Amino acid sequence: MAGPDGLSLESVRNSLIRQEDTIIFSLIERSRYPICPLLYDDKSSLIADASGSLLESIVKGTEATQAKFGRYQSPEEHPFFPENLPESLVPPRSSPNVLHPAAASININKMIWDMYTNQLLQLFASEGDAEDYACIGVCDLQCLQALSRRIHYGKFVAEVKFRDAPEDYTQAIRAQDRDALMKLLTFENVEEMVKKRVAKKAKTFGQEVTLSEDEYNGKYKVDPAIVSRLYEEWVMPLTKHVQVEYLLRRLD
Amino acid sequence: MAGPDGLSLESVRNSLIRQEDTIIFSLIERSRYPICPLLYDDKSSLIADASGSLLESIVKGTEATQAKFGRYQSPEEHPFFPENLPESLVPPRSSPNVLHPAAASININKMIWDMYTNQLLQLFASEGDAEDYACIGVCDLQCLQALSRRIHYGKFVAEVKFRDAPEDYTQAIRAQDRDALMKLLTFENVEEMVKKRVAKKAKTFGQEVTLSEDEYNGKYKVDPAIVSRLYEEWVMPLTKHVQVEYLLRRLD
């Protein structure tokens, strides 16, 4: 049942499912290019006087533009470089914020950046260099933003679960008991289903579609097992991490 | 057979096919949001002292960042607002430019912008407003860039066709005969096949993937007939327009 502010278990679930498509599309798009290690090199030799990696510069520049047009006014969006972002030029959002105000203090994008650039990328992009730095950096940013949105959506998941059964959570929150909260939030059968579904989506979206009627048995653009693993090792644990962080502050 | 610079009919064809996926992914992503007319309003009431639409400001800001990192050094990429773009900070590309130098003077992004914002968008996005201006603008830019890359890829298509049969084209080029060139470039059976394939891709990528084994018979995120029509009415004719423009200058 939706609350008066429109938040409901169903709307949250639908959003999570829809976001799977976005994540998989963005991985498939990034997989067009090789890894291109120069983009992630902290002492980039490509640009004189650069501080940080080329990707960092691309993301900072793009986030600045998006901040001006209100991206980070949305409680669903979290910048990777929140320092020195320009003010928004568009009016504040009129839609109600359904989250507890403490939500604003939770941003685990550093972990997501580290996971993506140091682990995930190597699993699905081929080795090699390319000179399309801007295009590759944009693809990286798409992946990072899609993963960040999905993982931080844990705030909404936690809020809707809390509203659904506040008495179940209150004791663990008052005791600031992370383990108890994590246990309350974990549903292994649901997680298994999600892993299967994202693998199936990776097969469906990553196949070479031809006019042939035969069943597809070629290669997939991104290995479905990697997408399953991404959810198992990172997306679902990090989402639960966000949920726990949020719930710990939910009664502040 | 590939030329010494790596250009071949097969590499061009593979790129065109791959770009279909990118275009359809970007349309599906944009379809998450309603049209949001405020983004396209030339006298945007959202930002004081704005010149042009909100989308224009978002695209200009993003293109400036991407220009700094060399996006427009690639002969595949064309800015929507080429005026006042910052210089690239990354070294010039080392890969050979396979196109005739006259290619650089062809940019029909104004036509693509007009087609997208005034016609295509209304066909696949639902009516209504939303406050996610930055996110929607980014989706628009993804669509615009994917369409622009695909349509301007006509330069490569024309180059490979010219190299394959220079004698067929030379007479029409010397006579600056657009109609004869258009005739040489048009293969109706190929165009029919492309229209069918992109519709099939829209079905495949735009379905709701579930763990059910049943054949999907729900709604698609973007109507496959619209994607077919996009190719028939705009992508293929505009690509041929680029091809003709390129060939007219090919012997300069």
What attributes characterize this protein structure?
globular; 252 residues; 9 helices; homodimer
Tell me about the largest β-sheet of chain A. none
Mean pLDDT of chain A: 95
Question: Span between N and C termini of chain A?
Answer: 25 Å
Helix content of chain A: 55-70%
Oligomeric state of this protein: homodimer
What does this structure look like?
Chain A is globular, with a radius of gyration of 20 Å. Chain A has 252 residues and is mostly helical. The two termini of chain A are 25 Å apart. Helices cover 57% and strands 0% of the residues of chain A. In chain A, helix 5 packs across helix 6, helix 5 crosses helix 9 and helix 8 crosses helix 9. Chain A contains nine helices and no strands. The interface between A and B is large, with 51 and 51 residues.
Q: What's the helix and strand layout?
A:
Two copies of one chain form a homodimer.
Chain A: H1 9-30, H2 54-68, H3 109-124, H4 133-152, H5 154-164, H6 166-174, H7 178-185, H8 188-205, H9 224-248
Helix pairs in contact in A: 1-4, 1-8, 2-4, 3-4, 3-9, 4-9, 5-6, 5-9, 6-7, 7-9, 8-9
Question: Can you give me a brief rundown of this structure?
Answer:
Chain A has 252 residues and is mostly helical. The first copy, chain A, has 9 helices and no strands.
